[in-house]
Amino acid sequence: MEPLSTDDSMELFFNKVGCKTELSEHLKKYAEEIITKCSGLPQAIIIIASVLASQPKNSERWSHIKEFLSSRNNISSEDLLREIIGLIYYTLSEQVKTCLLYLSLYHEGYTFMKVDLMKQWTAEGFITPVAGKDINEVAECYFDELVGRGLVQPNLNFSDEVMFYTVHSTIFEVIKHKSIEENFTTVIDYSGTIPKLFAKLRYVRITTDIVIKLPVRMQGLKYLETLEIYASLLTVPSDIVHLPKLLHLHLQGDIKLPDYVGQLKSLRTLQSFDLRSNSEDNVKSLSEMANLRDLHITCSTTSSDRLNRNLVALASSIGKHESLKSLTLAPGVSCPSIFTDCSSIVSSPPVFLEKFELLPPICIFSRLPEWFGQLQKLCVLKIAVRELRRDDLNRIAGLQELTVLSLDVRQPTAESIIFNSVSFPFLKYLKLRCSVLRLAFQAEAIPNLRRLKLEFNAHSREQYSDMLAGIDHLLSLQEINVRIGVAPGAQDFDKMAAESVFKDIISKHLRHLRFNVQRADFIEEDQIPQAPGLATTSSHSDGLLYMPTTVDVTRQSSEIEVVPVPQVSPLNDDNVTSDRDIQTNLPRKFGEWEEWNEKDPSTGEG
């Protein structure tokens, strides 16, 4: 990487440390000398600045850093970075040091997701609750500290979204060295001992594109905390409800969970729970999972009576969850067009929700509920509404934590949707799907919006004079993506006219902007299906529930039982992170699990 210029180095440094004008003259002088000593190395500047930013601004500390760098004048840039990393390492708490050294178990250049690494730290026992914070919040604090200090790097896409994380090669080299120096890891050959180690598993993740069959019994995995199966399953073992330490359960497809799933009292994450496949008792038992934080529900084809009962049970269960932070209701694998008024499902949601997704074609609100304004912790909101009136957005415009908003408006709006001044102060991403595009942005509206995604239909003889009024007020906007369909009665030339007006608006007001226009056949609007065999049930609100009474669409697929053809390879530092943590992208031999509910091979005890 080319060294940064002096100006760029200054900008990077003060972005971390704080405004230059707030520093005393002594600190300004030290800052200039420190930046010079960093030789334009971005990683060195970030790490040094993060240390200075985390401590009180006093001359003694800054002078110490300057003297440290000055004493290393005659070394290469890579050696300088190693020295800086070594210095920073000793400023970390013992808990954060341990979490950092864990990265030595990966290979150089490995990319990882934040949530996965946090689960592995927890499985290893590195994370313990502290006053006022649970283990997940503590793990997140440790991770954010490593990112803030420049020891872990976020990889961004072109829209500045974090896709995954990695570690700089020189930093990784230092971590490896420190882990050996402190005897953090010892790599040995585990050949022949795999069955014994399975009993101590805490983290299992399987990813494959074939249908798999789990062992009949899994009760022996009494230490298991995370089970993630990214594959189609035949069945879920009935004794999975007896895994006392299970925190995260992720299953794909419209799978039925065993009865008494509410016995998983420690469970924090449940994905996915299908309303078609599971019994009413299982839906009710969700309320017994007091520690549940993340609930992902799917809805597939079913009889209308059963779906109604499960929806009523779901509404009751959700209302009892005070600790729930993320709630998603999404279409299942074999989902037809089932519409239900969300007001009948969620009328008093958990007040600490941070992520709320109720997605079509499953769930549609008649209007934007007023109670959304009470969810002060809400960061992500993705919903569909049948109707959006001029003042409805004011109900959520003041939410201080909201950064992502996706609205699907099913009926054409008679008047412009107005974003008022100083509304949505921290919103960064807005997606709006509607039949007719009429938006107005007042001055200082959505001041931090970076990405705007729009989907609408072109209509016959539409003039589009009020398509994007005040779009130039979105001063932070970097990108717009648009999909234009054709409404009934309109022609392709109407779509071309809409596209032309949109491009004219952008070229006139936002020339610097990245934008992309796609043409679609039709952006779905709110249509009440009229077909034989269709039941219509009304709720207490304006919404309607539509579902087939006789049609049952089942997914066609070949089912392949995983057999132990690929032998389990010896564990080493390339394919495993510890004797309690296995991740794989291929089927593994799980036959050894089957009898562990009777005897623990590590202890010989039942």
TrEMBL record:
Residues 589-606 have a biased composition (Basic and acidic residues). Residues 105-174 form the Disease resistance protein winged helix domain. Residues 568-606 are annotated as: Disordered. One of its GO terms (molecular function) is ADP binding. Residues 196-512 form the Disease resistance R13L4/SHOC-2-like LRR domain. The keyword Repeat applies. One of its GO terms (biological process) is defense response to bacterium. Gene3D superfamilies: Helical domain of apoptotic protease-activating factors, Ribonuclease Inhibitor, Winged helix-like DNA-binding domain superfamily/Winged helix DNA-binding domain. Keywords: Plant defense, Repeat. This is NB-ARC domain-containing protein. It comes from Miscanthus lutarioriparius. The lineage of its organism: Eukaryota, Viridiplantae, Streptophyta, Embryophyta, Tracheophyta.
